[in-house]
Amino acid sequence: MNTLDFYVVRRIIKPLAIALFVAVLVLLLERLLRLLDIILGSEGPVGIFFQIMAYLAPEYAGLALPMSLLLGVMLGFNQLSRDGEVDALQASGVGVRRQARPAILVGLVITVAAGIIVGYLKPFSRYAYQSVVYAATETALNVLLRPHVFAEIGAMTVFIDGIRPETGTFTDVFLYERHNSGDSVVITARDGDLTRAQEDGTPMLRLFDGIRVAVGAKSSQPAANGNTGETTVGVLHFNELRTAMTGENAGLFRPRGGDRREYTLDELWTLRMAPPEGVRLNDLISELNHRLVQMASIPFIPLLAVALGLAGGRRTDRIYGIAAGLLIIIAYNQILDLGKNLVQGGDVGPFIALWLPMLLFAAVSLWSFHRVAERVPRQLVPILLSAVSERLSWLRKRQAADTDTPAA
Predict the structure, then answer these.
(1) N or C, which end of the chain has less CB nearby within 10 Å?
(2) Residue that finishes a domain, picked among 244, 270, 287
(3) Would you state the pLDDT for residue 265?
(4) pLDDT tens across 298-355, in order?
(5) What is the extent of the structural domain holding 172?
(6) Residues 263, 240 within the same domain
(7) What is the DSSP letter of 171?
(8) Distances (CA, A) of 77 to 100, 276, 286, 325
(9) Residue 218 shares a structural domain with residue 348
(10) What are phi and psi of 237, to 5 degrees?
(11) Is the pTM of this model over 0.70?
């Protein structure tokens, strides 16, 4: 890269970095507002806050990178055009194709970064985020247990009469749990407190001086002589009893892979031949092709951005060019999401639903860049932007004239 390339890159990088930072920050804050109750109700809220921020950053960076690249290149070349530098370079023999080379290189770098983020970092960060939220929910059990309030925790219903302020222990505890088999357990205790198992950190409720009553059906089918099945009742008096708050697997988050979005690109490619139990083949194929299409689309974004950035010289053209670029990217992402859903449902194949829109987007980007680079008369994009700008200006002047005209 020579001096010209570095100069153009500097013009692109600044708006790109600002757009990326703002987009990721807005998306993070929107999600964190919904998780505020969990964060405030967990132990060590500051640590959990920064963990969630770190684990969500790759996901939102993958979403914001294409749009930030579009804005960075568009604003950078628009400013070069407004300052007359594009015309000066062309007069000295440096065409638009040569001027756009740094933007294309930046697009390739962003493509590699997006591939690493979307293909590998995002699956792991998504799983880590889910596990942190799960852990935060488990540590917030003491917030749910309040005096004279029935708390639903998993399959359990817990009621406590009071909390001793000096120790934080519970008084007069009532617990009811119903299993899928139809069995139920009722426990009453004089005292209780919350603790964690040393092995895996499972939330445990310790109960003292109480009675445990287990009610279960000995037989769910009528007997041969027509008598109904018997019901068994077991009564246990205890001095201390411990029970896990969220079932036998509490405290242990599920293994990675429960969601197709938690697989890396390599894993999706391998599993497409033999999907794991509980995961549909269409889901794996749609996820794999959707990620590949997202990455394959990024190198064409700088070409579209250069065309839109050089579409007009007036300030209004610049505003409409930015709006048009954002609308194109948003509409394109919506089309890809729709195609992904169609592939998941088995309605169409990935080529028609995902790769065909990508090829159309690439063709439009290449054609727009070619029109601007070759300076073909009556370029479509500048004409459309100028026509919209002139029409809106005419409407504003007419409205102002109607306002100033006194009523008869």
Answers:
(1) C
(2) 244
(3) 92
(4) 999 999 999 888 875 555 556 777 788 889 999 999 999 999 999 998 889 999 999 9
(5) 155-244
(6) no
(7) E
(8) 9, 48, 36, 14
(9) no
(10) -95, 130
(11) no
